[in-house]
Amino acid sequence: MAATCFAEYLYAYHRLEWRRYVEGESVDLLAVSRELHACAEEEDPEHPVQKRARIEHHPEVAALREKLDTNAGLPQGPPSTRARAMAPHVKRLMQLRTMRAQTLGYRDYKDFDCEQNRIHEETIQSALDTVLKQHLPKARELIDRHGFSWATWFEDLRTFRPFEKPLDPEAIIQRLIEGLGLEALDSRLVVHIDPQGMAGFARLFENGRVHIATRPLDTPFALRTFLHELSHGLLYLYHEPPGHEKFLTPASDEFLAVVLENLLIDNVCTQTEQDSLKSVEHLEASRVALSAKFELDLWNNVDTPQQRYQHHYGRLLEVEAPECWTLDSFRSVDALLIQYYAIGYAASANLLTIVESEQLEGAALGEWLKRHLLARAGEIEIAAFL
Ligand SMILES: [Zn+2]
Fold first, then answer.
1. What average pLDDT score do residues 1-12 get?
2. Cα–ligand 1 centroid distance for 343 (angstroms)
3. For residue 223, how far is its CA from the centre of ligand 1 (angstroms)?
4. I want to staple 7 with a disulfide (CB 3.0 to 4.6 A). Which of 3, 82, 84, 223 is the partner?
5. Alpha helices for 153-211 (secondary structure H)
6. Could you give the CA distance from residue 231 to residue 260 in angstroms, rounded to a whole number?
7. How far apart are CA 289 and CA 267, in angstroms?
8. Is the pTM of this model over 0.70?
9. Residues near 143 by Cβ (< 8 Å), separated by ≥ 6?
């Protein structure tokens, strides 16, 4: 069956994102955004992916997202300067998203997001509490021991417990193919390694191939990020939607990628790798769960973001510059997506218990993953995993 107009433009959009984020080219995403919005309005307006596009690719929303993503017209200089200048735009973007959600019949954007993903905010909050209970005390211990700071969080992570020598991404892929029988990775996955490039990025191209960008796998953080992108790849390659399009909603895509990433760590990594990857999990699961709590809180308390930011992140470590609340891309580019990322940690803990009790491993685990998670990825009920 030929690709629909919406699908064709979404593939075009993915190509442009790849060229911007991985190849560093200057590209015009807005022209494709306009077409995506027009197709979504006409083609299948109630389809979850297209319904979301009616908000995210609406010309006003898309233009402001683009401004924040490219820093257009915003001052250069230290993060605090840029963060302060972004604040009115981030708040305006929240307002625009809510206005679009209201034209689709929802109370506000948060209401749209919860309904679309068939989940209540209380369920999300309770899963976030579970994640924090499991990871926060250990994260705080690691922060104290290794001197992590808020301002240098990602640099600290990138240099944390380096491996003696970098792992070969192709060898990791072979572990999935030979160990779990995930053979589609063999011919349809293209890996690009760039020491200065993005930490991780995965996109499905219209030729059915998945391209993954990674940095060299020289630390647990780099390996974890690569396994996350590989998990996106598995979703794109094995998803068998009833229609003919392979696209997932961003929430299902992120949620399942985190769940799979953790399953892969337990099943294809050596014990030594697992030990260092678990430390990164305590740190990152805590950070994203607090980020999600802040994001949910922000929609009700948009006038006091700095206080709310300090309130939530203060549980992890000292926040020296609360005006930097605007800088996380989840605040602008991917609003309310962080929560699905964060609750993926709670779901993966539940799923790992099932995998262990059913004694699933090797090819049997691979088959189980294909049948229960990957093939039906577009229909999963996120709340059912929690
Ligand atoms: Zn992801």
1. 80
2. 13
3. 14
4. 3
5. 153-158, 169-174, 180, 185-188
6. 6
7. 24
8. yes
9. 283, 316, 317
How far apart, in whole angstroms, are the C-alpha atoms of residue 229 and residue 223? 10
Task: Kindly give the distance from the C-alpha atom of residue 336 to the centroid of ligand 1, in angstroms, as a whole number.
Answer: 14
C-alpha of residue 284 to centroid of ligand 1, in Å? 13
**Per-residue tokens: 262:** 């953790």
CA–centroid distance, residue 258 to ligand 1 (Å)? 7
pLDDT tens by residue, 320-362: 999 999 988 677 777 789 999 999 999 999 999 999 999 999 9
CA 257 to centroid of ligand 1, rounded, Å: 6
Strand ranges of the sheet holding 189-193, from the earlier edge strand across to the other edge: 189-193, 210-214, 200-204
Question: In the chain, what are the domain boundaries?
Answer: 5-116, 121-299+336-385
CA of 198 to the centre of ligand 1 (A): 13
Instruction: Give 69's contacts (C-beta < 8 A, 6+ positions apart).
Output: 329, 332, 333
pLDDT, tens digit (0-9, with 9 covering 90-100), for 335-346: 789 999 999 999
Other C-beta atoms lying within 10 Å of the C-beta of residue 88: 10
pLDDT per position as a tens digit, 188-244: 999 999 999 999 999 999 999 999 999 999 999 999 999 999 999 999 999 987 665
* H or E element, residue 89: helix 79-103
**How close is the Cα of 143 to the center of ligand 1, in Å?**
24
Q: For residue 265, what are the contacts with CB-CB under 8 A and spacing of at least 6?
A: 224, 227, 273, 274, 277, 281
